[in-house]
Write a structure and sequence with these properties.
By secondary structure, this protein is of the alpha+beta class. Among the domains are: 192 residues, Immunoglobulin-like (Sandwich), CATH 2.60.40.1730; 133 residues, Orthogonal Bundle (Neutral Protease, domain 2); 93 residues, Immunoglobulin-like (Sandwich); 132 residues, Zincin-like fold. It has 27 helices and 32 strands. Strands 6-5-9-3-2-12-15-14 form an eight-stranded mixed beta sheet, with no helix packed on it. Helix 11 packs antiparallel against helix 12, helix 20 packs parallel to helix 22 and helix 26 runs antiparallel to helix 27. The longest helix is centred in the middle third of the chain and has 24 residues. It is globular. Bound molecules: tryptophan (TRP) and zinc ion.
Length: 880
């Protein structure tokens, strides 16, 4: 395994390569232990580059078998080779030449899941970000674009299908036991988009006719016997292809689009040109084994990877610092797609929740970094919520600032001007500046300044002059490496809601505000509205137009007014959520100090009314009823966190709400969409409301019968897992919970994705006693330590999704994670580093837990042979 050199890469060090790659021709002879790779690369020296400059290629754990120049062995005195690089001297000064590099790999022993590896008997590759260098020596960087031809040879009984990027050239028998296939991808691409798959798989096929009338073959490969679970993914793919044509005018550009689902995968999925590889969790779905959330994730991720074909593949990144250029933009596009396919406000509420739960804590802790980082030690650690989710919010703000028309013009210009390029954020922004005539210099700070801005808001109402004033002030706290910050351009959508619930139509005097958006660009700004007929209530950051924290003293009555009357559904939810957050924060602090909790009757009244309001869509009501999570409350409190106090306070508040609305909750808990299971958003919304109501009903009733009955009657995984969750989380020690867990296990034992849910449910049972349960599950014979989904389902769920269990005051949870991280790091550094980020907010804990956390982190740092991935995370977390 690669060990840490501590090397730091810098954005400002960018330099193009000395040689230009024209074409690459790869031949693979697949074998589990000894795969032979021959790479023939045609290059020429870049104009103006010194005639003595060496060719320096990247490698990772490679050994060279042979090396030729234009077909002749190169004299050993003219090259140097190590596992990490191949350096060749004395190459021709002018004209193209061909280098032939041969290497041998053992896919079977590749446990990092980067490069060429084997999963369930299937050969498969993962090359982003720097996995191609584990296959052959090459310029493994995103600005080196080449046309690839790939020939794959394998035993027929070992690999029935032989796949790579681009269009199929041909294939057939190679020798007695072996066959071959050849693929050609006409679109120049960087090495991180290379893919190869070989294996015996099940296949479902369909086709799509593009807007210009070309027919594209669509193929999804899954494990044998699971073909019946790939239909929803295929449907989502066709809808994505159509949507990108309708909304962005983007057409698919090969004769075939293929997706392969594998069970061992480090992340969600990968957008390799024409051959996406997916974690099977994001492909396989049927009513019996997948939840509504699984269906929604599949739809979003299929779309995401497909949309990369234009934002990522046709236009790629100059270097990895520009990662948000493809990821933030593509997340933005998949969000818009899902909003169009489902309920837009409900989708937006889910996005806000996710951003606050994952990105805000990142921005507030030791791992904070700009949307476009300026340095890194290990790029794998920058596939973060900041790059993806905040990166998407930044694109969304560009649209808010420019308006829909100029945004689309800018995107069109970007596609036209940069097709075939490895581009930068500056290139991207220049297209919007040109298309709109606007200046985005200050706006660009969103890419370079880390941290979540705070905007404090105050208002003043003058009854006699009928004038309403709004005062805004922004601030941005220091983050690692950035002590002083400049004011940002923050677009805050707003509305003034009048006493009768209607909206004030007038514009403010003087300052910059357009179409209901305040453009806050200075540290302080104020706005004055005149001729307002009665005291208005300010609804600010509508739709979460900017990813900021708003600090505003707004009375409970004003929040209720917004929750009742705001024309924007997202804002109505924001007002309810703000009410709940405030109450929970107050109650949690009192609980921490051992004091009595305030009555929650006011909050309960509002939420019960919302639950009962049949004019609201069920999915919205479900969102309103799901209180801020314990981590949400911790984030709002910010320091001296006691997770047990937060849990106790939140449970008490839930009980009060439950008691206040028992009749309504029992009624709602029993409602279900008519007919057989369908995954559409409306049915899912009904099930979400019923599930949330069930949880309240159980709390009020104090006994598990209703959940047990729901579990026994369930005819789909959504309802089954909801029932199992409330049963195990509210009544962990009950006989019913134990029996239900056993029943679930007996039924799904041979289905890894369903069993992942079984592990996660147990790992997230609140309370200190869960640690012992997690340990015994970890140590059981049937626990598969090599499968990332399984590790995440148990260790990931416990450490990132169980505040009271993981943060046990004696530090046992932290020690468990530390020892697992050290162990997993030996096999799969990327996975280990990601698991460790669960501790990123350790400094906001109360003193004792902070000390226990620190000790656990120090023990990791002291371990031998840590990977660059884990070293980087642990060093940043401990830096003061
Ligand atoms: N580019 C992929 C996406 O966002 C994610 C990705 C990056 C990835 N690195 C990876 C996936 C490593 C698996 C393994 O769609
Ligand atoms: Zn992506």
């Amino acid at each position: 395994m690669r060990t840490d050199t501590g090397q730091v890469y810098k954005l400002t060090d960018y330099k193009p390569t000395d040689f230009v790659v024209e074409r690459i021709d790869l031949t693979f002879e697949l074998d589990p232990k000894q795969t032979k790779v021959v790479s023939r690369v045609i290059l020429h020296r870049r104009e103006g580059v010194d005639a003595h400059a060496e060719l320096v290629l990247d490698g990772d754990e490679l050994s060279l078998d042979s090396l030729q120049l234009d077909g002749n062995d190169i004299d050993p005195s003219l090259y140097e080779t190590t596992p990490e690089s191949l350096i060749i001297r004395g190459l021709p000064d002018s004209g193209p030449f061909e280098i032939t590099v041969s290497t041998t790999l053992s896919p079977e022993s590749n446990t990092q899941l980067m490069g060429l590896y084997r999963t369930n008997g299937v050969y498969c590759t993962q090359c982003e970000a720097e996995g191609f260098r584990r296959i052959t020596y090459f310029y493994d960087r995103p600005d080196v674009l080449a046309v690839y031809t790939v020939t794959i040879i394998a035993r027929k009984d070992d690999a029935k299908y032989l796949l790579s990027n681009g269009n199929f050239l041909g294939g057939g028998n190679y020798d007695e036991d072996r066959h071959f296939a050849a693929w050609f991808d006409p679109h120049p691409k960087p090495s991180y988009l290379f893919a190869l798959v070989g294996g015996d798989l099940g296949l479902i096929e369909d086709s799509f006719t593009t807007m210009s009338g070309r027919e594209v073959a669509l193929k999804i490969y899954v494990e044998h016997g699971k073909e019946g679970r790939a239909g929803y993914a295929m449907d989502a793919l066709k809808r994505s292809m159509k949507w990108d044509e309708d909304v962005y005018g983007r057409e698919y550009d090969l004769d075939i689009f293929q997706i392969v689902a594998v069970s061992d995968f480090n992340m969600g999925a990968m957008e390799n040109k024409g051959l996406n590889v997916f974690n099977d969790k994001y492909v396989l779905a049927d009513p019996e084994t997948a939840t509504d959330a699984d269906y929604a994730n599949i739809e979003a991720i299929i779309a995401h990877e497909y949309f990369h074909n234009w934002t990522g593949n046709r236009i790629t990144c100059r270097d990895w610092f520009q990662l948000c250029l493809k990821e933030g933009l593509t997340v933005y596009r998949d969000h818009a797609f899902s909003a169009d396919q489902r309920s837009a406000p409900v989708k937006r509420i889910a996005e806000i929740r996710l951003l606050k739960a994952h990105q805000f804590p990142e921005d507030a802790g030791p791992l904070a970094h700009p949307v476009r980082p300026e340095t890194y030690r290990e790029i794998n650690n920058f596939y973060t919520a900041t790059v993806y989710e905040k990166g998407s919010e930044v694109v969304r703000m560009i649209r808010t600032v420019l308006g829909a028309d100029d945004f689309r013009k800018g995107m069109d210009l970007y596609f036209e001007r940069h097709d075939g390029d490895a581009a930068t954020i500056e290139d991207f922004l220049a297209c919007f500046v040109e298309a709109s005539g606007r200046d985005l210099k200050q706006f660009a700070l969103w890419y370079s300044q880390a941290g979540t801005p705070s905007v404090s808001v105050s208002t003043d109402w003058n009854e006699t002059s009928r004038t309403f004033k709004v005062f805004l002030e922004q601030s941005l706290a220091p983050t690692p490496g950035q002590s002083r910050k400049a004011p940002m351009h923050i677009p805050l959508a707003y509305g003034l809601i009048l006493p009768d619930g209607s909206e004030f139509e007038g514009q403010p005097d003087g300052a910059v505000a357009t179409d209901g958006v305040f453009h806050l660009t200075k540290r302080k700004q104020s706005y004055s509205f005149t001729d307002v007929c009665g005291r208005p209530v300010l609804s600010i950051n509508r739709g979460f137009s900017a990813p900021v924290n708003i600090a505003m003293e707004q009375s409970a009555d004003d929040l209720v007014h917004i929750a009742r009357h705001d024309s924007d559904g997202v804002s109505r939810w924001q007002a309810l959520n703000e009410q709940a957050t405030r109450h929970l924060v107050t109650a949690s602090k009192l609980a921490r100090d051992g004091r009595n909790l305030p009555s929650a009757s006011e909050l309960a009244g509002i939420l019960v009314d919302t639950a009962a309001d049949e004019s609201l869509e069920p999915a919205f009501r479900a969102q309103a009823l799901s209180l801020p999570s314990e981590s949400d409350i911790a984030r709002e409190i910010g320091s001296n966190i006691d997770p047990d106090a937060i849990h106790a306070a939140r449970q008490a508040v839930m009980s009060e709400i439950a008691a206040a609305g028992l009749d309504i909750f029992t009624d709602l808990a029993g409602r279900a969409p008519a007919g057989p299971y369908r995954p559409d958003a409306e049915s899912a919304g009904l099930r979400a409301l019923a599930g949330t109501a069930l949880s309240y009903a159980l709390m009020a009733e104090g006994q598990p019968d209703r959940a047990k009955a729901a579990f026994d009657a369930a005819d789909n995984m959504t309802v089954l897992s909801q029932a199992l969750q409330v049963l195990t989380h509210h009544f962990p020690a009950s006989q019913d919970a134990k029996e239900a867990l056993a029943t679930f296990k007996a039924r799904f034992e041979t289905d890894p994705l369903a069993m992942d849910k079984w592990y996660s449910l147990q790992a997230t049972v609140p309370g200190a006693q869960t640690l012992a349960c997690v340990e015994s599950l970890l140590n059981s014979r049937e626990f598969d330590r090599s499968n990332p989904n399984r590790i995440r389902a148990l260790i990931g769920a416990f450490s990132a999704g169980n505040p009271t269990g993981f943060n046990a005051a004696d530090g046992a949870g932290y020690r468990l994670l530390a020892s697992e991280v050290i162990d997993i790091d030996r096999r799969n550094p990327q996975l280990a580093a990601r698991l460790l980020t669960a501790m990123r907010s350790w400094r906001s804990l109360e003193a004792e837990r902070q000390e226990q956390s620190r000790l656990a982190l120090v023990s990791i740092r002291a371990a031998n042979n840590l990977s660059p991935d884990v070293s980087d995370i642990v060093d940043r977390m401990l830096a003061s």
